[in-house]
Write a structure and sequence with these properties.
Strand content: 15-25%
CATH class of the largest domain: Alpha Beta
Radius of gyration: 19 Å
Number of domains: 2
CATH topology of the largest domain: Rossmann fold
Strand order of the largest sheet: 1-11-8-7-5-6
Number of helices: 10
């Protein structure tokens, strides 16, 4: 029977460390602060914001919200980003995307200072991931995959890691992060020929293509460690990952959907805010 990699356990360990680090920063006069910039009130954005605020409050991170109307102009949004950049008391910024039609998302994301980009949306942050430099931060979900593996003791060094998915949000950055940890990495996607054969070569499989059931038993070995990042909702409202659950249960280990990577993401966001505050203060954690 596969080991179940519950995200809540990894998140709890991260949170415990962050509470201590936040207290130390506050004792030195720095209050870690996250700015949340939300345009409109999409249900998924509001739900994630609620979870992020709750996590920050539990850790001791201050939150400043910028709630903008769905029809806000691009220039007004850029003014808010400029305000966030110019406020030394704000250490990180979470900008919800996608932005409404008519707003140049590339321009807006590019306006955010990389050192305050705690969710890896700027070119500077992505460059930092690809060059293994501390410029900005990795996308939270991509790093959550690594944090989950670390928590459960799965070493990447020397392992064969197959990533299914090529987005800049998860697939590409998590592949680079695994490579930086000395894994041998293969990137696949939904159009990869003989996908199951490639997946079956993996010691660690990270599925992040956003297609329910894309990977089944034919792509899994008995010892495969499966990190399922897919979030797919069917017509009845049931959530599933990119890997068939009944098949993942026969692998070596797997992260459930829900309850796996997603449960770690807000803790990673908080971790990035605390790290950004430490960098701003010239402190070491």
């Amino acid at each position: 029977m596969a080991e179940i990699l519950y995200g809540k356990n990894a998140a709890a360990a991260i949170n415990e460390a962050l509470i201590r680090e936040t207290e130390a920063l506050k004792a030195g006069g720095t209050n870690p602060t996250l700015a949340i910039v939300r345009v409109g009130a999409r249900g998924d954005d509001v739900a994630y914001e609620r979870g992020a605020v709750k996590r920050c409050e539990m850790i001791g991170i201050d939150v400043k919200k910028f709630e903008l109307a769905a029809d806000v102009s691009e220039e007004e949004l850029l003014k808010v980003i400029a305000e966030v950049n110019g406020d030394a008391a704000i250490h990180g910024c979470l900008l919800f995307r996608p932005l409404p039609k008519g707003i140049d998302e590339t321009r807006v994301c590019g306006a955010l200072a990389p050192e305050k980009d705690v969710d890896g949306i700027t070119a500077g942050s992505i460059l930092g991931v690809f060059t293994d430099k501390n410029t900005g931060f990795a996308p939270c979900t991509a790093q959550a995959c690594i944090e989950l593996l670390n928590h459960y003791g799965y070493e990447l060094k020397g392992k064969k890691v197959v990533v299914v998915g090529r987005s800049l949000v998860i697939g590409k950055p998590v592949a680079m992060m695994a490579l930086a940890r000395h894994a041998t990495v293969t990137i696949c996607h939904s159009r990869t020929e003989a996908l199951s054969e490639v997946c079956r070569t993996a010691d660690i499989l990270i599925a992040a293509a956003g297609k329910a059931g894309l990977v089944d038993a034919s792509g899994l070995g008995p010892d495969t460690v499966v990190i399922d990042v897919g979030i797919n909702v069917d017509a009845d409202g049931n959530m599933s990952g990119d890997v068939r659950k009944e098949d993942a249960e026969q692998a070596g280990a797997y992260s459930p959907v829900p309850g796996g990577v997603g449960a770690v993401t807000t803790s990673v966001l908080a971790k990035h805010v605390v790290e950004a505050a430490a960098r701003a203060a010239g402190a070491s954690l």
